[in-house]
Amino acid sequence: MDNTQQRPIILASTSPRRKELIASLHLAFDVIPSHANEDTPPEWTPEQTVQELALRKALAVYRGLEGREQEAIIVGSDTVVVLDGEILGKPLDEADAERMLSRLQGRVHRVFTGVACIDAGNGQSLVHYRQTDVTMKELSDATIRAYVQTGEPSDKAGSYAIQGIGASLIDRIEGCYFNVVGLPLSLLSDMLDGFGVHVLPRT
Ligand SMILES: Cc1cn([C@H]2C[C@H](O)[C@@H](COP(=O)(O)OP(=O)(O)OP(=O)(O)O)O2)c(=O)[nH]c1=O
């Protein structure tokens, strides 16, 4: 018997990458952009930060539903890049992107993505995260400048996109690739199982 997806999913995100990633699981979903406050205390760990922000994004959409869509599962997500214990978010401008890439080049950094699921029927939530180690090649200043000029880094944590031109900057990764792009699909499918949404039939 096919007992795949039983409940609608709402992706609480403005990110086109997350939309593409969840679509690749062939799940039916709607997108409601979430505009949660993303300020966090500097002393928070990356694990705390991405999990709390993922939950805030999902909660902001949940609160806006006002009792509609009770069947839905709301999914929120947040990604940061961490180097030497410091969280690198999205660059403020091109100079900031160049600075970030100059620090990341030739080094290993860690990407954290938090995922939150909320059951709109009863408000029950589940939050987890994944981490992936990413080794960036050594890059010249000219290469970094040329990459920043492509415009790709502007809305990406750590100022690069592994799924785009930025793939040419990455030597290797250890862990979930989709976690780096912004939505760890293996983790998400496990979390959705707990809410009765199955990517594949389960016996
Ligand atoms: C490291 C890396 C990050 N990113 C992206 C994923 C996220 O979209 C973004 C980090 O910013 P986030 O604040 O996690 O997400 P967002 O603002 O883009 O979207 P949302 O509305 O869901 O909050 O960086 C890539 O696309 N590729 C990469 O290789």
TrEMBL record:
It is found in: Cytoplasm. The record marks 17, 79, 163 as: Important for substrate specificity. Its cofactor is a divalent metal cation. The keyword Cytoplasm applies. Its EC number is 3.6.1.9. The keyword Iron does not apply. Its main location: cytoplasm. It is an enzyme of class 3 (hydrolase). Pfam families: Maf (PF02545). Keywords: Cytoplasm, Hydrolase, Nucleotide metabolism. The active site is at residue 78. InterPro entries: ITPase-like_fam, Maf-like. It catalyses: dTTP + H2O = dTMP + diphosphate + H(+); UTP + H2O = UMP + diphosphate + H(+). Nucleoside triphosphate pyrophosphatase that hydrolyzes dTTP and UTP. May have a dual role in cell division arrest and in preventing the incorporation of modified nucleotides into cellular nucleic acids. Belongs to the Maf family. YhdE subfamily. This is dTTP/UTP pyrophosphatase. It comes from Paenibacillus xylanexedens.
